[in-house]
Amino acid sequence: MGMGMGDGVTPGYIGSPPGPAIAGSREHHAGMNAPLASPATARLSQADVDHFLREGYVLPTGQVFPQDDFSALQRTFEVMLADWMAQGGRPEAMDVPHFYHPELMRWLLHPAVLDLVEPITGPDIVLFSSHFICKPAGDGRRVPWHEDSAYWRGQWDPMDVVTVWLAIDGSDLGNGCMHVVPRSHVGGYSEYASVPERAVFSREIKTGTFDAATAAPCILTAGACSLHHAKAIHGSAANTSARRRCGYTMRYISAAARFDQAKNNDAFQIYQARGRNLAGNPVADPGRANARWIERFGVQPPKGH
Description:
Helix content is about 20%, strand content about 20%. It is α+β, with helices and mostly antiparallel strands and about 300 residues long.
């Protein structure tokens, strides 16, 4: 089982060192989509932290959220999915849903998930993005081999985004679980080629430039998660099973990292999740929808990652 920060864990910070919390602290968010009530418990053991830093990913033990909180997220997602599908959207493409539904901040800023990433990011944390990637039963599309960093090139310095891949449904070999290539997070910017078939992305890391046979499957029960580094090579097979496979990617980075807005869409927003805004990046109010984004793109956001 994972241990708390008081159980002998030496944080493997790839971001900011500890320091006094000011704006963006737990108290800062009280009253504006405050996190659901829950004990704030760090859940990475020292072995987990070491594994993440060495291998580029880790599968923590247990559920991310208390069951009542997770069940509430599942219900919220089902409503959002039904609305998205009614508007003709592919279920794999529910990118930046928190721009439209600030109620998702109740989970994105939940102390349980922030405590989960803090041993890696440090205590000063920015919420970068989120994405429901839902593969429907029978025709869920393949996610080609890729690095997240290749899609975010130049946006963060350093490029140390940590993604929490939360299983909304159980995810296994039968319904297209994610695979991660261990120790592949030292590069981050591989050569890519076009993908001929319909897939979630239109390009993929060139065959033969990495060893896909070494990829580790991230088999998760509903409510559990994996964590992976932005530069880690990962992907997943199509879902041809009779079971849906949905994950919610929640993406965080140290608040010491510098965000280059010009390398992203100028309507894109990031949020202070915890601690100090060390880099002085412009951060948005998590209690409000991203009106500029919605005005510009409506219900169909540009294809992102």
